[in-house]
Amino acid sequence: MTVARVLPATLVGLILMFLALPIVVVMVVSFSSATYLTFPPPAFGLRWYSAYFASDDWLRSTWLSLWVAASVVVLATLLGTLAALGIARLPKALRVLASALILSPLIVPVIVVAIGIYYAFARYGLVGTPAGLILAHTCLAVPFVVTSVNASLAGIDPRLEQAALSLGATPTGTFFQITLPLIRPGVLVGALFAFITSFDELVVALFISGSGAVTLPRRMWDDLLYQIEPTIAAVSTLTIVLTVVLMGCAHLLGKRAAA
Amino acid sequence: MSEGVEIRFEGLAATRQSGVRLPWRLSWRPVMPLLLAAPLLLFMLVFYALPVLSMLMRSVNDPSWTLSHYASLTGDTVFLKVFSNTLYTSLTVTAGALLLGYPVALSLVRAPRYAPVILILILLPFWTSVLVRSYAWMVLLGRHGLINEALLAAGMIDQPLRILNTPLATQIAMVHILLPYMVLPIANALRQIDPSLARAASGLGATPWATFRQITLPLSMPGVAAGVLLVFVLALGFYITPAMVGGTREITLSMLIAQQVDQLNWAYAATLSVVLLATALAIIAAFYRLPGVGHTLRTSAR
Fold first, then answer.
1. Domain B71-300 CATH superfamily
2. What is the C-alpha to C-alpha distance for residues A206 and B166, in angstroms, rounded to an integer?
3. What domains appear along chain A, each with residue ranges and CATH number?
4. A136 to chain B: which residues are within 8 Å by CB?
5. What gap in Å lies between CA B162 and CA A76, rounded to an integer?
6. Which of B107, B124, B266 comes nearest A20 by C-beta?
7. Which residues 6+ apart lie within 8 Å of A152 measured at CB?
8. Distances (CA, A) of A189 to A152, A223, A249, A250, A257
9. What integer pLDDT is reported at residue B247 of this predicted model?
10. Phi (first) and psi of residue A55, to 5 degrees
11. What residue spans define the domains of chain B?
12. Mean pLDDT confidence for B32-38
């Protein structure tokens, strides 16, 4: 082993440590037995997890976040899949225009989206309601559904649909028997992304969740302003596990769809 | 039945291939795609596009049609300071992410044996929410955080350093959060380089460093440009991280916008939003003209 080989490897190792370190630290801290935030913890225990599960506020926010995210999945997947199917067959000018509208939340800075939605939702009476969160999060989640379904659609051999139609299948039958099974991985990946987008979303929630619909990220944020006690580390660890499992599924599904 | 379907079908093929337009009433097909897309388009217009646009309009119609909100920005020292601070933060974060990201991308492509481990180490933080990662940096950089305790224990400092609530904390945390956006496009561009080029160069006597400088680096530039674009534009709009770890003295444009909304200063918040959005769009437009950037972005999105 020469210096020329060891040096770059060490460098990359250090950068990868930099990437992993914060997450590892949060997970370790969550099992601390100390009443305050310190690293390394003096001893290990589950007190912060029991604090979380004993708190009505934390549990209420967790259920709200799960419930909102599940509704977003249904709405975004339904609207997004239908739209992706339609947009692929639109004339070019219309297709460009529709894609620009649907994909723009990926480009527009989220603070701008958040205050725009707050500005309008305050008038619609949607601030501080789960419905407001569901509607806003759906707009943020839809681009992921549309791009993911679109990628699946692009991979379909058009002759399969043509063959079904020419063999006498109705357009509806062709859709349910040919198109839908072929794009199913793309739809699932889109649904998983939609769930995470809503479940992790904070900036819009900061403005529109008010005091009536405090989501999990919002409660973490509010708590952080006063103290950084390890309950948040426990909540963080639980959300890390949930999102990593879901994103891992999406990653594997996406790989299988591409193969 | 099947005949009807076939006619419709050939009609579609004809419009696609030869550009022959069917009379509208002969075919319901052109209407169908529009009907499928309409629910989502309407939904996004009502709950996203019109809200954002009507908010942005406050920058020109408050209290009546005027451009004075924009005109006063040029003499607005708070805005100028915050805007330059935002650009500076985005620039340093982009530079930091490039410096750390390129070697990681290179090893991801060049060391296939470790590639799965490297990929997992990149993706795990990538899949964790920005809030949780910013919180992690609060834990690490605090007065009694891991970094300070480690430096104290090693005897390198006598007193805890003040890192949390400084611009440096924002920069460290943002580089960490945005690093995957740099690594993935660069790795994608590196993967597309024909390996026989490097072999030919070294066969002709080039040193490894010369091969890297003259072959690999230039050919990976579309990936670098795509990564720089993504990181810079995302950094411009960052709100959660600077608000959590950066303190209140050096704020970013997003934080100023949020402050103004809290004070119900809608015209000013809208004007700042237009500036932020226009800056992001201008940078995207400029980068998209570079060769290969659009292609790299599209392929690494998958």
1. MetI-like (1.10.3720.10)
2. 23
3. 46-258 (1.10.3720.10)
4. 47-48
5. 44
6. B124
7. A182, A183, A184, A185, A186, A187, A257
8. 10, 32, 8, 5, 10
9. 86
10. -95, 120
11. 27-57, 71-300
12. 90
Output DSSP code: residue A229: -
Nearest residue to A49 via CA among A245, A249, A241: A241
pLDDT in tens, chain A (259 residues): 466 677 888 999 999 999 999 999 899 989 988 877 777 778 888 989 999 999 999 999 999 999 999 999 999 999 999 999 999 888 889 999 999 999 999 999 999 999 999 999 999 999 999 999 999 999 999 999 999 999 999 888 888 888 888 898 888 888 888 889 999 999 999 999 999 999 999 999 999 999 899 999 999 999 887 766 788 999 999 999 999 999 888 888 887 766 5
Q: Tell me which residues of chain B, numbers 89 to 108, contact chain A at a CB-CB cutoff of 8 Å.
A: 100, 103-104, 107
Q: What is d(CA A136, CA A124) in angstroms, rounded to the nearest whole number?
A: 13
Check pLDDT > 60 for residue B2. no
* Residue A170 three-state SS: coil
Q: A195: distance to nearest CA of chain B, Å?
A: 13
Residues in A closer than 8 angstroms to B261, CB to CB, are 115, 118, 207
Looking at the complex, does the CB of residue A135 fall below 8 Å from at least one CB of chain B? Answer: yes
* Residue in B with minimal Cα distance to A22: B136
| Amino acid in position B165 | N
A64 vs A139: CA distance, rounded Å? 18
Partners of residue B255 on adjacent β-strands: none
Question: Which chain B residues are within 8 Å of A147, Cβ to Cβ?
Answer: 301
Structure tokens at B57: 């309009």
A240: nearest CB among B132, B142, B261: B132
Q: Residue A132 is which amino acid?
A: G
Q: Note whether A37 contacts B142, CB cutoff 8 Å.
A: yes
Residue-wise pLDDT for B115-155, tens only, equals: 999 999 998 888 899 999 999 998 899 887 888 888 888 88
Query: Rounded to an integer, what distance in angstroms lies between the CA atom of residue A89 and that of residue A234?
Result: 47
